[in-house]
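During data preparation, a discrete fold description was generated, and the record follows.
___
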Amino acid sequence: MRTARLRTVHPVLWAGWAALAAGAVLCVIGWYGVSGERFAERQLPYLASCTVPGAALIVAGAVLLSHGRDARAAARLEELYGLLVAAGAGGDDTAGAGGSSAAPVAVGGRTLMVPGGTLWHRADCPLVAGKTQALPVDGRLLAEGSLDPCPICEPDAAED
């Protein structure tokens, strides 16, 4: 799936690099021609035939490279979304007949926070599990409202 989409993007990237290279060569030729002429009327043909088209090719190459990279990023995003949808479809079967998919992941009573973080978590939340720098939540921070509850484990303020 990924290689089929990315093959269509590569020609755009190659065309961008080719336009950049051709534009640079034309600008160098134009500069060389202008520098060898003493009078302005003899410099104008070099400007018109080499330097201006060279600059236009450089701009066109930059646009093509930007578009090619955006298309490549969009293809990767589509692939990741497809993987996420496929993983979500497989996870629905594990909820069971009476289970709710909106239930919190963690159910522990103790709450933790990561220094510098903006969320507070249950101790068994997957976002803080195994992190040695996780500290018990300071009640003062909860009272100030500077920490928000984790949307994954949904800790309750009454527990702490």
Observations:
- Confidence is low (pLDDT under 50) at residues 93-108.
- The CA atoms of residues 139 and 145 lie 10 Å apart.
